[in-house]
Amino acid sequence: MTLRLYDTATREVRDFVPLEEGRAGVYVCGLTVQSEPHVGHVRSGVNFDVLQRWLRHSGYEVTFIRNVTDIDDKILAKAEAQGRPWYAHAAVMKRELDRAYAALNVAPPTYEPAATGHVPEMVELIETLIEKGHAYAAEDGSGDVYFDVRSWPAYGELTSQRIDDMEAAEDATAQEIGQRKRDPRDFALWKGRKESEPATASWPSPWGRGRPGWHIECSAMAGKYLGSAFDIHGGGVDLRFPHHENEQAQSRAAGHPFASYWMHNAWITTAGEKMSKSLGNSLTIPSVLQRFRGIELRFYLVAAHYRSHVEFSFEALEESAAGFARVEGFLDRVGGAAEVEKGALPQAFADAMDDDLGTPAAVAVLYDAVREGNRLLQAGDAAAAREQAGAVRTMLDVLGLDPADPAWGTGSGGAGKADALTTAVDVLVRGLLDQRAEARAAKDFAAADAIRDRIKAAGVEVEDTPEGPRWSLGNTGSTV
Description:
The protein is about 45% helix and about 15% strand. The chain is α/β, with parallel strands linked by helices. α2 (about 75-80) crosses α3 and α11 runs antiparallel to α12 (about 360-380).
């Protein structure tokens, strides 16, 4: 079966035909490092990690680029609120993102370009657009440069919209519409520096000091590392408009064919709303990993089809973790994942993955193999059960879920010795915290304080938060 992928641009599942046989160029919009990553953020990382793993397993030589946006309005605002330089804030949040990806075994991309490292390429692309008549500098001396959407008749083709039906660009104030922009839908390619912004957050350009607009970043970085034409462009479904629409328009207006296929992963929602910082319903990765292992969270994310919206709940995550425990239990019964050689990949699994990365069907094949393996063990056919275990391990490896993968640590359960110790301590501490909560509910504050002192004497600090108590090792700063 040929690999088939759903192309957002054509709204159909298409055979994957790369521009160059045996090679696949993939660009995925990474995160803006403004705050701690939450479950909704990392879903894209996990989904497109599965894509690159399947492409590689299928024999493709993959160049996988995932960018980082390390300068924008929100980064500047949050850094100012915290009283530290914007670049320091971005660096701290980038490290948090790296830890989150590592905790979920998201393989590093071929290269991870940062926006601030590619300003010359962005300026060059903007100059090309101006020369071709698709962009203009504002006449008010602000230093802003805008893409002229009316100059590109195909604008709106990615999302099947007519220009006249679109709302004004988010950066369009009443003043800008009248004094800076030819059309309220024109979007910023370059933002002239404002006196209220730090001087370090600007770069020289033909239009004066400033910084790039969000959309131009990805066009420039994709072009630098994948060329003017490449195979797959991916990202969250919320990026389809305006980000990806604008990327495609400005790239093609500059003469670049750009992406052959567009892939978008769906949202993770809570209470029916997209998980986001602005809605206040985000669940940061460190918080979720207090209760579940990274391998369990990854399994939960992988088991849903990448184009399906997921309504997040800890109950659903617990059920998923229980399902994965059954898989691990089978591998343990045949001697442990590390002792099992990888075997042949079941054809039904491969067919599911070739059908637009059909992970739900692939996981069903995995479960069937585990059930058959347990039946063989019960029947006393250890050799056949071990062969079945080899197929299970291969399927897990394709999905980035192999418990024996060093990325998960050295423990047979995939958590590693350090993680296992943390889990054990967490159980003990939370037992004491539950006793403390009961004492406080009974207004026995003396007993509650005694329990807290007992925990503190063990070198554990407790912080009461709106989501409940969190503990950390006082001398290490490691929060659990």
